Amino acid sequence: MKRNELITPEGTRDLLFDECLAKREAEKRLARIFKSHGYSEVVTTGIEFYDVFSKGSRTVKQEALYKLTDSKGRLIVLRPDSTIPIARLVATRLKSASLPLRLYYNQPYFENNALLKGHSDEVTQAGVEFIGTKSRRADFEVLSLAVEALSSIDSNFRIEIGNVGLFKELVSNLDIDRDTAEQIRYYIVNKNYPALNDMLDTLGDSDVIRALKELPRLFGKKEVFKRASKYFVNEKIRDILKDLEYVYDSLSKLGIEENLSVDLGSVNKIDYYTGLTFKGYFEGIGEDVLAGGRYNHLISEFGYDQPATGFGINVNACAALLLKNGSAPKTKVSDVLVFSQMEYVMEAISYANSLSKKGLVVENSVFETLDETKEYALKKGIPKVVLVGERIENIDVKGGDVI
Amino acid sequence: MKPLRIALTKGRLEKDTVGLFEKIGFDCTSVRQKGRKLILPIDDGRIEVVLAKANDVITYVEHGVCDMGVVGKDTIMEMGGSFFELCDLGFGRCRFALATKKGSPFYGGYGVKTIATKYPNVSRSYFESKGMDIEAIKIEGSVELAPLLELSDGIVDIVETGTTLKENGLEVIEDIAPISARVIVNTVSMKLRQGEIEKLLNLMENNK
């Protein structure tokens, strides 16, 4: 017989003790940064109507959604992303709020992944959304927050900028259908040089084709902009490139030249990005931990035309890294164990309460005898036992006559 | 400096890749005389070769425990996953093909066709692109048996010379996709170790 009641679904895990502490520590560090820059927390619903994620630039692959139905038979999904629900929230309940809006979140999203590949189906993500301004200042603020967020977890990080406008502009110059454009995007994102070249060869030869072929190779440090300038002749694209270089140079003023790079072929799968995008990486984590960028049309899909920018960071990955680096707090052994005979049990509990108010971690002994209590303290490593009776007496555990 | 870890698909691709490495000038004695070891340092420990089954090469690279991998396009097409597919090594060449019993028409009629294959995803997406419903049945051993036993109308399999097909009275009626060995790279490693990886890729590309 299958005992599903004893296990958790594929892609999920229970967190215990140190794992919890590491996760809370990561959340605490990130929330502190967001709050200290004037961002206010929002929590969106865990379940949403399927319709929120099924149209326009906010389409989430159907097979990646966890689906259920409500009492009226309408299709409901577990939240697969936080930015789209926040866009919905802004376009409805925050329509009359004064702009710009600075929001942050810390909540899980759910993704129905292929089985047995070791991917997580439930991932806690924290992030910010800066809504209601197209200003370059907003981009810089959010990028600098991303840098702060990454460096609060581990100094060994990388932040990489890009711009989806490059790809969108190049493709708009070709006479191709949506599917072909998507195929080209897919090959560029996967840096599949052979397949990309084969595909583009069938479309003839022009400076746009040559630029598309080169796009996935254009990543690295500042020299990328120099290499790229050879390939882009179109005025509009040169402007995007120039702007990206300006962002690159500005960011290096934060003293993070070492951690900074650019990838012109970073054309995110997420459709709602409209311009500047960025990603964050940590050494030792095999996938990007932070992703963000500008999305100027997403909120208008909900009927409120507002530009925005933001990012999300994978809290689980941050926690795993804190745990690995030993920089997360450890589960604390109790400071004091309080014991009493049964007739003094309420006095003992009051005394324990008074110690906990002073900031000590204190446990009540549930044993009937002092010897058992001392034995337990030794086993758990609790340094001090207090006997509450007529008077309050400190018992030395190690020097005692137990064992 | 941490060594660059590259996973090779055990068997022929491993031999061909080791051949390529030796052509580049890496001393691969450790791989040639590996015994039962599965992680083998070459190039004075700058590179670590990991030997794994094809599907596992993709898994290790996807998770970033190996920076790079050499794996057949067949496995990539069947498994998918997110990684960079940077270079066609040119060896391990063969193709995916649709084969049926000699002389039996595959297309035509209204019935849904049954395909026996080790590659159900490749089969499904191929016929999906033709707008055709098929029933894919996964077979683990010799796929050629299925049409002979009349379990299926055809097979989708890797074909190199076609000799096995011919000997069993089957024939290729369509090529689906060419296959060869590919170099795949973890998306984060590519960014964090760009210099080392590009250097190795160039050496491999220029010596293949």
Report on the structure:
The complex is a heterodimer of chains A (403) and B (208). Helix content of chain A is 37%, strand content 20%. Chain A is an alpha+beta fold and 403 residues long. Chain A has 2 domains: 8-325, 2-Layer Sandwich (BirA Bifunctional Protein, domain 2), CATH 3.30.930; 336-396, Rossmann fold, CATH 3.40.50. In chain A, the strands form 3 sheets. A 9-stranded mixed beta sheet of chain A has the order 1-5-6-12-11-10-7-9-8, sandwiched between helices. In chain A, helix 1 (17-36) packs across helix 10. The mean pLDDT of chain A is 93. Chain B folds into 2 domains: 4-92 and 180-207, 3-Layer(aba) Sandwich (D-Maltodextrin-Binding Protein, domain 2); 94-178, D-Maltodextrin-Binding Protein, domain 2, CATH 3.40.190.10. Chain B has 9 helices and 11 strands. In chain B, the strands form 2 sheets. Chain B has a 6-stranded mixed beta sheet with strand order 2-3-1-4-11-5, with helices on both faces. A 5-stranded mixed beta sheet of chain B has the order 8-7-9-6-10. The longest helix of chain B has 14 residues, at 194-207. The model of chain B has no long low-confidence stretch (mean pLDDT 93). Chain A binds chain B through residues 117-118, 158, 160, 190-195, 219-220, 261, 263, 281, 283-288, and chain B through 59, 62-65, 81-88, 182, 185-192, 194.
Any key phrases for this structure?
heterodimer, A: 403 residues, Rossmann fold, 2 domains, 9-stranded mixed beta sheet, 12 helices, 37% helix, elongated, B: 208 residues, alpha/beta, D-Maltodextrin-Binding Protein, domain 2, 6-stranded mixed beta sheet, 5-stranded mixed beta sheet, 9 helices, 35% helix
Question: How is the biggest beta sheet of chain B arranged?
Answer: 6 strands, mixed
Strand content of chain A: 15-25%
* Count of alpha/pi helices of chain A: 12
Low-confidence stretches of chain A: none
Estimated structural class of chain B: alpha/beta
Please give the CATH class of the largest domain in chain B: Alpha Beta
Largest sheet of chain A: 9 strands, mixed
Largest interface: A-B, 21 and 23 residues
Instruction: State the CATH superfamily name of the largest domain in chain A.
Output: Bira Bifunctional Protein, Domain 2
